[in-house]
């Protein structure tokens, strides 16, 4: 399967935070051929193990990419219209007029509506519509809506993947299915490569509501090292200063307290020898990724972070370069294969 | 409904970190009902009822602590300034009374302000214990206090301070009283410090290492004048949590509760709470992750000194838990 | 440790750079002062420095003592065409105090300055300039040279050298190098009845992160956190709490934003202070957070308390403390640990 088809399939899967089973269902057949073990843990994280060829007990690298997505949730029903609110950091500035799917007893198509501008005051027209005044309309009478849509039903955006120029694609949930795609490609590539370490690919749950799946899976696996994969801010017309990164110029490597300096250096060295372009992403505090949770699991786990630059984050038109996904996969696989059986990250001042 | 017990529970002193008095009350009641009872390092009380099955472990948590205030400063004239222990709003407490651990009673009032139409900041409120000077004040910086209001039963409604979450403690005790043999080992956890950090439930759940965890707590309602829209009403049955601002309930746990309610014919509501969370948020993330959920008692005026619940909701919450834990 | 030695240690630690996640120089500075006084010394995966000092065997309590090594600072996030450094804060820094400062950039400690638009050319605007609009000038000619001398991720600290000031001492990073100095002084003394794990933690300023791991690793029966805390004892328009006051002795936390201190430990410390004639004060409840905020909820729960040295102007380039408060904190900590028995924290 090529990268475009893979991302198409992953973007289309519906997996709001806490309800990721459908994404797992898509991933299982994709990962199964390349895994020695495949399981789902108590929180719903999908975990694939690809054993290394080093002597036991083998060190393990955990690579985490979150599979949950931001979405909406039905909070009430009024005269047949659905009240909704956000799951995760859904951007309410980019919702009006969109076509959605309401995942009730069965899937129902719907439209996000609000009152027309003609009847509003100038003040109201100038302001973002608050959640209470935004409705999902499924075109059914009240009694039928009540019977078919339970409170708590998730609502996802309908948005098939869009192909832009120069192998850029746009769509929903590319945060973070792009990284899940990279993890899938890395799993395939590693099967064909020698690696001494055990490799755990983890599609984590509930990142968008606080990196929760990463926290519990890191505790459960207790890996020697971890690399998180996530998207990062791509340079776009209206936001292109520090902390944003060009599309199609390779993944970013996080630097800051969340990351072990030796892993940062090693990722850069491997990228250089593989001729993969990268940029350093400075993160002086909370990295806002699974790595933040993983690092403080148990007795502490040295972490690294690869970021795929992406424009318009948390909007239904998230845009990225397919080649950056492939580069991320290649860097992760090469990094894993580079780990010597006895490698452990050390601090410069350790004897 | 054992109103005597609920009165005792709601009136016992227990701000976060200072749960000794309420713990003693609960301990006395649950000790004869459980196979064993202990207190964890942070002060949570655990009552274990052993199951008949394969030793799966389920935690049921209700928190013992209550919102309160702590003295931050005593001025020259003996007036006290204070900070919050848990989420309190100045709007709810002006004119109310607080009680310190030693029985000292204080009145909450507010400074004169230029613009009295605005809600005052907490820093503009003070407590008057009737002292005439700093030296004369019977309390000092760092002393905690709780709000005062008696329990009143009016028809099917109950009004009291601290129904959050002593009514949850009551539900746990009643469930323990009524429950026959169950397959799972049940850990009835009366947790500490829920209102500030969720640390009690978190650490006790770590120790227990359960297969499933349920919080029993109050939730807000959308049935009062111009309330924030919320599809939960008082008197319409227990609320089964779908999600709140701190946790998404595990779908299997949520569905287990829904199935139990439907099996025995208890009305229930599906709850989405936008502002607030429970001990389940902490228990869910313990160790490698614990499938977790929550059963809520609909409650009006949460975190005010006069919280209100419906007796039938409370009784049905006990029935729901019993049905879910001891499947016929 | 006498006062001169204690202050020399404080000065040395204060002068050492070490922002969150980059505490290596502080570890290097601490090691020689710990070797020979503790049974073992190791660095964990997060970078915490863990010193184990065996007890006398009087009882078997394991007690965790922590002081954090990291200080607030800046990080290079971008470069301008003119060769200036764009920065972001590491930990919370008050943007009001950055203009006009001298700083140290990177492992080579290159001097740099933070200047702003001349007053003649500035808008008449009293708003504080946000950190994102400030730049650090190291004298680089252009973007290329700046990138080479201070690449993305380079750490920046205040340039202050510690020194006496009146009856007080002045320096950067007293939060929490003062706590580090107190912990070293304790560990250099004779063994205590309990087994002591002295942990110099990382990443306190970005979320109490090293302490959380230390709490899990050590699995102690109780924890004492040592801090340099806020003294707001300046003149004010209205009467109110000074949070803490310089010269009034060690500061006890009853409750802050991160946790509620264990009342039994608070009682113990008060009893000990009263008996030994050591002054103490309560920190204004509800302000700030310390490593105890993550230690107390590790594993099955850890009763915890924070003892702090009052400092004016923490999180700024020059903080002030009273050497007596530092000495009293060491004395109160030692005396409290001597009286800490299993009975104090037992749950019947």
- Tell me the overall shape of chain A: globular
CATH C-level class of the largest domain in chain A is Alpha Beta
Instruction: Please work out how many helical segments of chain A DSSP would assign.
Output: 9
Reported by name, the CATH topology of the largest domain in chain A is Aminopeptidase
Report on this model:
The complex is a heterotrimer of chains A (351), B (328) and C (348). Chain A is built from 9 helices and 17 strands. With 351 residues, chain A is α+β, with helices and mostly antiparallel strands. In chain A, 52% of the residues are buried. Chain B folds into 2 domains: 3-66 and 161-325, Zn peptidases (Aminopeptidase, 3-Layer(aba) Sandwich); 74-147, Beta Barrel (Elongation Factor Tu (Ef-tu), domain 3), CATH 2.40.30.40. In chain B, the strands form 3 sheets. An 8-stranded mixed sheet of chain B has the order 1-2-12-3-13-16-14-15, sandwiched between helices. In chain B, strands 5-4-9-6-7-8 form a 6-stranded antiparallel sheet, with no helix packed on it. Chain B has a 3-stranded antiparallel sheet with strand order 10-11-17. The longest helix of chain B is centred in the middle third of the chain and has 16 residues, at 163-178. The mean pLDDT of chain B is 96. Chain C has 348 residues and is of the alpha+beta class. Chain C has 2 domains: 3-71 and 172-345, Zn peptidases (Aminopeptidase); 74-158, Elongation Factor Tu (Ef-tu), domain 3, CATH 2.40.30.40. In chain C, 56% of the residues are buried. The mean pLDDT of chain C is 96. Chains A and C meet through strand 15 of A and helix 2, strand 4, strand 5 and helix 5 of C.
Helices and strands, with pairings:
The complex is a heterotrimer of chains A (351), B (328) and C (348).
Chain A: H1 3-12, H2 21-31, E1 37-40, E2 46-50, E3 60-66, E4 71-78, E5 81-87, E6 99-103, E7 107-113, H3 122-125, E8 135-137, H4 142-148, E9 154-157, E10 162-163, E11 168-171, H5 174-191, E12 198-204, H6 212-221, E13 225-233, E14 252-255, H7 261-273, E15 279-282, H8 290-295, E16 303-310, E17 318-321, H9 322-338
Parallel strand pairs in A: 3-12, 3-13, 13-16, 14-15
Antiparallel strand pairs in A: 1-2, 2-12, 4-5, 4-9, 5-8, 6-7, 6-9, 7-8, 10-11, 11-17, 14-16
Helix pairs in contact in A: 1-5, 5-9, 7-9
Chain B: H1 3-11, H2 20-30, E1 36-39, E2 45-49, E3 57-63, E4 68-74, E5 80-85, E6 97-100, E7 105-110, E8 125-128, E9 144-147, E10 152-154, E11 157-160, H3 163-178, E12 185-191, H4 199-208, E13 212-219, E14 239-243, H5 251-264, E15 269-272, H6 279-283, E16 292-298, E17 307-310, H7 311-325
Parallel strand pairs in B: 3-12, 3-13, 13-16, 14-15
Antiparallel strand pairs in B: 1-2, 2-12, 4-5, 4-9, 6-7, 6-9, 7-8, 10-11, 11-17, 14-16
Helix pairs in contact in B: 1-3, 3-7, 5-7
Chain C: H1 3-15, H2 24-34, E1 40-43, E2 49-53, E3 62-68, E4 73-79, E5 85-90, E6 102-105, E7 110-113, E8 135-136, H3 143-149, E9 155-158, E10 163-165, E11 168-171, H4 174-188, E12 195-201, H5 209-218, E13 222-230, E14 251-252, H6 263-276, E15 281-282, H7 292-295, E16 304-312, E17 319-321, H8 323-339, H9 342-345
Parallel strand pairs in C: 3-12, 3-13, 13-16, 14-15
Antiparallel strand pairs in C: 1-2, 2-12, 4-5, 4-9, 5-8, 6-7, 6-9, 10-11, 11-17, 14-16, 16-17
